[in-house]
Design brief:
Number of helices: 6
Strand content: 15-25%
Largest sheet: 7 strands, mixed
Length: 209
């Protein structure tokens, strides 16, 4: 790519959009050499859509179809078309609560990233912070990873540890993990946009600058 400024992000979300806001604001501050080209949500009332519109970023609700945990075929196709029309280089999942399947993964192979609120491979799936607290671990955290066909199993790009305090509740631990996500996710997206990482099998290598 001749101009790093042309690197384009497509963001998918289902909720409030705080990770999106952290990434969009990092782009605006030139900490990430990229622009958010489009924001798509599967929930019409999702806060992420309003946050995008406040920042003058194109935002669209796409009905997800009849399934609860994944997109149906028509919805999947609509998401793919919207992202292709926006000419995105990287898809950033920011609280997107549906598992992406075959056609979507094939269309953007190796170009989808997600953040998960645990130090993967520990505690995949829902409410990872609660899983960590129930298990009694002393260190929790978050992981940015590439997305593949399994849940929370793609190659790990970056991780940030968060200590578990003796008086933590699920809510207090989740809040601190969320703050760590807002630091880690923009750093990882920036490294991808700058071409600073490569993938060798399951290992993601950061190029020393």
């Amino acid at each position: 790519m001749s101009n790093a400024e042309q690197f384009r992000l497509g963001v998918l979300g289902s909720g409030k959009g705080s990770n999106f806001a952290a990434i969009a604001d990092a782009c605006a501050a030139k900490k990430i050499p990229a622009d958010v080209a489009v924001v798509l949500a599967d929930v019409e009332s999702a806060g992420i859509l309003e946050l995008a519109r406040e920042r003058n970023i194109p935002a669209q609700f796409i009905p997800p179809g009849k399934f609860r945990t994944k997109l149906d075929e028509d919805a999947e196709r609509a998401f793919v078309i919207a992202l292709q029309e926006a000419k995105v280089d990287l898809i950033v999942l920011a609280g997107f609560m549906r598992v992406l399947k075959g056609e979507f993964l094939r269309a953007f192979e190796g170009r989808i990233v997600n953040v998960h609120p645990s130090l993967l491979p520990a505690f995949p799936g829902l409410e990872a912070w609660r899983q960590a607290l129930d298990h009694g671990v002393k260190v929790a955290g978050c992981t940015v990873h590439f997305v593949d066909a399994s849940v929370d199993s793609g190659a790990i790009i970056g991780q940030q540890a968060v200590p578990v305090l003796d008086n933590d509740t699920p809510e207090s631990l989740h809040a601190r993990i969320h703050s760590a996500e807002h630091e880690l996710y923009p750093k990882c997206v920036a490294a991808i946009a700058r071409g600073e990482i490569s993938v060798a099998g399951r290992r993601v290598i950061w190029r020393e600058i």
